[in-house]
Amino acid sequence: MARYIFVTGGVVSSLGKGLSSASLAYLLQSRGFKVRIRKLDPYLNVDPGTMSPFQHGEVFVTDDGAETDLDLGHYERFSGISSKKSDNITTGQIYSDVLKKERRGKYLGKTVQVIPHVTDRIKEFIKNDIKNEDFVICEIGGTVGDIESLPFVEAIRQFSNDVGKKNTLFIHLTLVPYMKASDEIKTKPTQHSVKELRSIGIQPDIIICRCERNIPLDQKKKISLFCNVDIKNVIQTIDVKTIYEAPISFNNENLDKQVLNYFKIKSKKNVNLTPWKKITKVVLNPKKNVNIAIIGKYVNLKDAYKSLDEALVHGGIHNNLKVNLLRIESDNLKPLDIKNKLNNVSGILIPGGFGKRGTEGKIEAIKYARKNKIPFLGICYGMQMAIIEFARNVLKINKASSTELDSKCIPVIGLIHEWKKNGKIIKGTNKDLGGTMRLGSYDAELINNSLIRNIYKTRLIKERHRHRYEVNINYKNQFEKKGLIFSGNSPDKNLPEIIELKNHPWFIGVQFHPEFKSRPLAPHPLFSSFIKAAKNHKK
User: Fold this and answer.
1) Which residue, 75, 237, 297, 525, could crosslink 358 as a Cys pair with Cβ 3.0–4.6 Å?
2) Which fold has domain 3-91+129-278?
3) Dihedral pair phi/psi, residue 23, rounded to 5°
């Protein structure tokens, strides 16, 4: 039977529940156990797919086509476990499921209530699609005490009673602030947070204390006393110089050891932290550095391109380089500014996106990269912008654009009407926005004697997609006659997946999102190659 670990947070948000859960998952895996990680989000949206990046940050996409919380990206990068649709649920999904059942008469005329109907649905999610996992780690989004989180907290309290306390463990992450004026560590916020959790019926078994500096023994004893937790289970997590130190730090604090002790389980093998130590060494002591410009409309929002930022770091790790990210708002990028703003960069990247705002700045940046032989990577929307730039400036199709931007344009980019998945035709005609999206993992075939084939070292690849628009295949011959090669395509040859430019040291556009599959212990080959090309670029 699986053991369930529930991770809650208190005092303030953004304490690092996702990173803590991911680090614990790696440590337990390294000890020889099979682990699954899940996220329960308290917002009422059905999924984050239609939420503004300013509200939610990045939308992470799984192999099976779920649009999920960015924390699932942390889970994958640290644990190496590919997440599924069944690993993320929101309050919106839960209430939607409950109301659909009510409309179908599944409750036999009963009054539908939060308890037991909503909490029962949450409990179903927790234990659904579990096979032979040893541990299931469930992170509860939000902060304990918030009204939005109450049904989840109540559900995990009930769940513990259902499966038995010996099979469940509660970890509470909280803030232990340092007051500079008095030079003191303050435990009161933690005490109040745990009090709030206990008032709902949950006694934490382990408390993880987020702090700026070491917590003195007497303060740990105070937390232990007032929160009714064994002092061995008061785990401090000090701010680290790089997130890749997190698994090392938690292991040093015996988090994984205490989890196993709680369940009375012996470790199957010793933890292997050597890969993380190597990575940390490279990140903190790189031999050289390289400047990469990311040009988009959400670049100043830290979490909007979270997986992308991490993938570039991974590429730097693979090349023993520090990657300096120059974030440039595409809105503000004018033709006269291009040279000054991009003069000191060795690589240019246009990330995924949508909408008209900032497109002309992106197109100008791509033109600069093409003409000046600067390594360029266009991802999803970035690839589409590269197509438009080439069509306008090389093919001389002045009105070339995307139907997303201009319904009266010459459509070198257009809405996908249908595509294949698992041998079935899928039509993008649903009225809800999520129904028109090509989501999840799809195959692409790479042509011989291409740069992309040399990078991947294989003919067939699988990558994750998130888009409604696609390059118009009818213009393929015109592009290729002028040197822009369609080097990767869907197996049926109808959907261009990858473009690359002849007579350029490194110019690639991809319709998919390779950043979702990059991991610190296994950098994505596309980012490793891009950073290497930037390293070799002569300014």
Assistant:
1) 297
2) Rossmann fold (3.40.50)
3) -65, -45
pLDDT value at 424 more than 80: no
Amino acid letter at 494? N
Residue pair 137/34 in contact by the 8 Å Cβ criterion: no
Neighbour-count burial of 317, counting CB atoms closer than 10 A to its CB (0-12 exposed, 13-18 middle, 19+ buried): buried
Smallest Cα–Cα separation from 250: which of 203, 222, 210?
210
SS3 category, 209: strand
Amino acid residing at 170: F
User: Mapping DSSP to helix (H, G, I), strand (E, B) and coil, where does residue 322 land?
Assistant: strand
Distance of CA 324 to the CA centre of its chain: 20
pLDDT in tens, 169-221: 999 999 999 888 888 899 999 999 999 999 999 999 999 999 998 999 999 99
- Closest by CA to 460, choosing from 480, 440, 442, is 442
> Closest Cα to residue 310, out of 514, 511, 534, 138?
514
- Residue-wise pLDDT for 400-412, tens only, equals 999 888 888 999 9
Q: Decide if 348 contacts 369 (C-beta within 8 A).
A: yes
Contact residues for 27 (Cβ-Cβ < 8 A; gap 6+): 247, 250, 251, 255, 256, 271
**Could you identify the residue written with the tokens 């907290």?**
153
- Tokens 């590429």 -> residue: 315
Residues of the chain with CATH 3.40.50.300: 3-91+129-278
Beta bridge partners of 323: 290
Residues in the chain: 539
Rounded to 5°, angle at Cα 456 from 452 and 459: 85
Q: What are the start and end residues of each CATH 3.40.50.880 domain in the chain? A: 286-414+470-536
Interval 427-465: pLDDT, tens: 554 444 444 688 999 999 999 999 999 999 999 999 999
pLDDT mean over 507-528: 96
Q: Are 194 and 227 in contact (CB under 8 A)?
A: yes
CB atoms within 10 A of CB 214: 11
**pTM for this one?**
0.90
Q: Which residues are catalytic?
A: 380, 513, 515
CATH of domain 286-414+470-536: 3.40.50.880
What six digits make up the tokens of 389?
């730039």
